[in-house]
Amino acid sequence: MTIDINHIREDFPALHQLVYKRPLVYLDNAATTQKPKVVIETLVEYYSKQNANIHRGVHYLSQQATVAYEDARCLVQSFIHAAHSREIIFTRGTTESINLIASSFGKKFIKPGDEIIISALEHHSNIVPWQIACEDRQAILRVIPINENGEIITEEFEKLLNEKTKLIAIAHISNSLGTVNPVKEFIEIAHKRNIPVLIDGAQAVPHQGIDVQEMDCDFYCFSGHKMYAPMGVGILYGKEKWLEELPPYQGGGEMIKEVTFEKTTYNELPYKFEAGTPNVGDVLGLASAIKYIAGHGMENIHQYESSLLDYATKKLLEIQGLRIIGNAGIKAGVISFLVGKIHPYDLGTILDKLGIAVRTGHHCAQPVMDRYDIPGTVRASFAMYNTMEEIDVLVEGVKKAKAMLE
Ligand code: PLP
């Protein structure tokens, strides 16, 4: 099976619009993806017919919504190959998933003088929660440096490990440079010292098959909206043995077993971590997106997006003065670039007027920009619905902008 690109594009209404009288070329997929009709229809269907609060209702709608919500959990479980559905926690997104672990793990396991390791490639969402946890627990944040290509330096990583290291948190794929990190290797190294590893999978889940058991990560976090699902829903996967030990993140309805003014006992997994009315509609939208992706085959998507990356890299490098920031040996469909001395914001603004949506700036990864001593980059990031023709439009757009700005 291969990707039927025309068919796929038909599924995404947002792609068929004009921006400044030009066909939209949407290349900001690392920020968020567009949504296929099936996902949009799932939301309409849910709010038209099923909407009810779940788990406690005896009535028909509540029972229907509960079954659909728990089925979605099982679907996520099989999508990332988790051992149990109780290891799947619904959150608002990657950011909330990481904050949950930073807070709960921090409270239970981090003492003054302990250390947490992240890498120099991280998104702010995988930096700031650990800074907060470290400040709270008087612990120390250590950062693994990257090389000029934008790859984490494994030897430096190993040097940072010691008996005070309590947790390692690393991105699977860098959102700013596209580097695919050898997370399995890092996890093996960490586990030899019994140190748990959290993987920020926000940029990986839409682009390659994920098997959390094979990877052996302790926690894996991702967002629905970057994988064709609605905004406002995400996943925290955690190994059961850890989730059992961690204290709740938020208190409220759903996460309790019994409440008295003297003492509250907590619900079992996964509900212990899902306080309050859940985001049922968006969870069902996420399930719909997973079915959509699975229908096209993760391996097909991965191969197709790799061909987009190769083509775009080759064509962009033909432009004189263009340099790509981040040239890791293994990359996902993200290209960060600069042209001569042109400010990325100016380039992005002209591309926008040509109907081309790219991202400019630091991409919520300011330390990465500091590493290269640049204010930011222009970033084109691909999804399964992008085409080679769109890359040609991007390349022509960059040439035009260059001619105007230089
Ligand atoms: N981590 C990475 C690598 C990301 O790319 C992003 C978003 O761009 C996040 C975390 C945060 O995701 P969200 O804003 O959906 O919580």
Which secondary structure elements does this structure contain, and how are they paired or packed?
Blueprint lengths: L4 H6 L7 E2 L2 E2 L1 E2 L10 H14 L9 H21 L7 E4 L2 H16 L5 E5 L8 H10 L2 E5 L9 H7 L4 E7 L11 H9 L5 E4 L11 H4 L3 E5 L10 E5 L1 H6 L10 E4 L4 E3 L13 H17 L1 H20 L4 E4 L8 E6 L4 H10 L2 E2 L1 E3 L4 H7 L4 E5 L6 H18 L1
Parallel strand pairs: 3-15, 5-6, 5-7, 7-8, 8-9
Antiparallel strand pairs: 1-2, 4-10, 9-10, 11-12, 13-14, 14-17, 16-17
Helix pairs in contact: 2-10, 3-10, 4-5, 11-14, 12-14
Bound molecules: pyridoxal-5'-phosphate.
Pyridoxal-5'-phosphate binds next to helix 4.
Oligomer: single chain
Helix content: 40-55%
Bound molecules: pyridoxal-5'-phosphate
**Top CATH class of the largest domain:** Alpha Beta
Supply the number of helical segments: 14
Looking across the biggest beta sheet, what order are the strands in? Answer: 4-10-9-8-7-5-6
Q: CATH fold name of the largest domain, please?
A: Aspartate Aminotransferase, domain 2
CATH fourth-tier homologous superfamily of the largest domain: Type I PLP-dependent aspartate aminotransferase-like (Major domain)
- Approximately what portion of the residues adopt beta-strand conformation? 15-25%
> Which residue ranges are poorly predicted, with pLDDT under 50 across at least 5 consecutive positions?
none
Largest sheet: 7 strands, mixed
What is the level-2 CATH architecture name of the largest domain? 3-Layer(aba) Sandwich
Structural class: alpha/beta
Please count the beta strands (DSSP E, at least 2 residues each).
17
